[in-house]
Write a structure and sequence with these properties.
It is a single chain. The chain is of the alpha+beta class. Helix content is 15%, strand content 34%. It has a single domain, classed as Pseudouridine synthase (2-Layer Sandwich), CATH 3.30.2350. The chain is built from 4 helices and 11 strands, in the order ββαββαβββββαββα. Strands 1, 2, 3, 4, 5, 6, 7, 8, 9, 10 and 11 form an 11-stranded mixed beta sheet that branches. The two termini are 22 Å apart.
């Protein structure tokens, strides 16, 4: 998807004086990269008419919630919540292969390969690796695919993609991690669905929910 196919204002999920969240389309980078493509950060700053601060990331081919801070105070507060694992991040992933269990905890060790921009996974800790944990459960199945709800406990590079691939369930379209073929639009069926956190000023719990891509027939089939 290119920037001509959507209006940034239509992607706004949540906003106030401290924070703003967007429902990122597939193939839009969260921040500027080596391509010349407009990033969600730069488009968001145009929309907000102010500087925004990156709090967390989302893989370019994935979709869903990306939250930005409007102030340094909000950035510091949210960074602290992420550091203390107080933020709950829930994803949806579509896989073709049935996981070995209907639900469970996955624990691996990931080491980022910078040159290949992928994470190498191992069952045991190796030099330079970081522990990766997530909890998944199957919430729906259709004829050819299964929908997983994933609670991310740690936030590692390509964590969900690498861990699901490690149990034989690569995300649909994710040929980087072993799915047989890429999606035609180069997206992957991984969606940042819900984000729960404390407001940096009021202290109230906030929950943001991002609708799945409405134009996609597979997401539609699950009737989320």
């Amino acid at each position: 998807m290119n920037t001509q196919e959507f209006k940034i204002g239509d992607l706004v999920l949540y906003k106030n004086n401290q924070l703003i969240a967007f429902n990122k389309p597939a193939n839009v980078p969260v921040q500027d990269d080596k391509t010349a493509d407009k990033s969600l950060l730069s488009l968001g700053e145009i929309y907000a008419k102010s500087s925004l601060h990156l709090i967390h990331r989302l893989d370019r081919p994935a979709t869903g919630i990306v939250l930005f801070a409007k102030t340094h105070g909000a950035l510091t507060a949210l960074n602290e919540q992420f550091k203390n694992k107080e933020v709950r991040k829930t994803y949806l992933a579509v896989v073709k292969n049935m996981p070995p269990e209907s639900e469970g905890m996955l624990i691996h060790f990931l080491k980022k390969n910078e040159r290949q921009n992928r994470s190498i996974i191992s069952e045991n800790e190796v030099s330079g690796s970081k522990k990766a944990e997530l909890y998944y459960k199957i919430i729906k199945s259709i004829e050819n695919y299964h929908l997983l709800e994933i609670d991310l406990i740690t936030g590692r590079h390509h964590q969900i993609r690498a861990q699901l691939a490690a149990i034989g369930c690569p995300v649909k379209g994710d040929d980087k991690y072993g799915f047989k073929r890429a999606n035609s639009d180069h997206s992957i069926h991984l969606h940042a669905w819900k984000l729960r956190f404390r407001h940096p000023v009021s202290g109230e719990m906030e929950e943001i929910i991002a609708p799945v891509p409405s134009h996609d027939s597979v997401w539609k089939a699950f009737e989320i």
